[in-house]
Amino acid sequence: AALGAKLLHREGADLSIYQAFMHGGLERPVNTFSFLGRMDATGSPVEYLAAPIWNWSAFYTHIVNEYLSGALTPGIRPRSYWWGLDSSILNLHMNPESVPVEVIRLVSHMKHDMMRGEWSAFRGPLYDHEGNLQLEADHQWEPEDILFMHWILDFVERIEIEEDPSEPSQAEEDAAEN
């Protein structure tokens, strides 16, 4: 993972998503699995910017209530755990010391629009990199549709990275850490 971030930095990226448990020294909210951070030339995070925050109490309360109401049957796995911002289980935290107030306000506005169902990143029309229409205008995908996307949106920039032969390979970095 560190090599990947280092290669991205070499290509001009200055942000990356990091696994929280691997970077315990960086100050950030507690209930995070991952976070968006600014990176240095080695690909290491140097500043926490934002992270999804999980409200596990609300999650487990919801599951128990589903079982108690009979909506879920013991021993049968629920179909989906895809709960968004409107569920009170998931939230987004931004570091006010690192993220400009204008960005925080814009994201907050978009978050509220998403919670009210007034905006979705997955509402058509959506096109892939080859210009093919993947989702018609005024249609919106369900979570299951998003999970099975096998194409990239036309506005997403792909960076093709070739490893620098002078850099250690990921296997060499992993071996050095162990």
Structure description:
There is one protein chain. This protein has 178 residues and is of the alpha+beta class. It has 5 helices and 6 strands; from the N terminus they run αβββαβαββαα. It has a 4-stranded antiparallel β-sheet, with helices on one face. It has a two-stranded antiparallel ribbon with strand order 5-6. Strand 2 and strand 3 form a beta hairpin. The model has no long low-confidence stretch (mean pLDDT 81).
Order of helices and strands: HEEEHEHEEHH
| Strand proportion | 15-25%
Helical residue percent band? 25-40%
Radius of gyration, taken over Cα atoms and rounded to an integer in Å: 20 Å
Low-confidence residue ranges:
none
Number of strands: 6
The side-by-side strand order for the widest beta sheet comes to: 1-2-3-4
**Total number of helical segments?**
5
Distance between the termini: 15 Å
Overall mean pLDDT stands at 81
Tag the structure with descriptive keywords:
178 residues, alpha+beta, 4-stranded antiparallel beta sheet, two-stranded antiparallel sheet, 5 helices
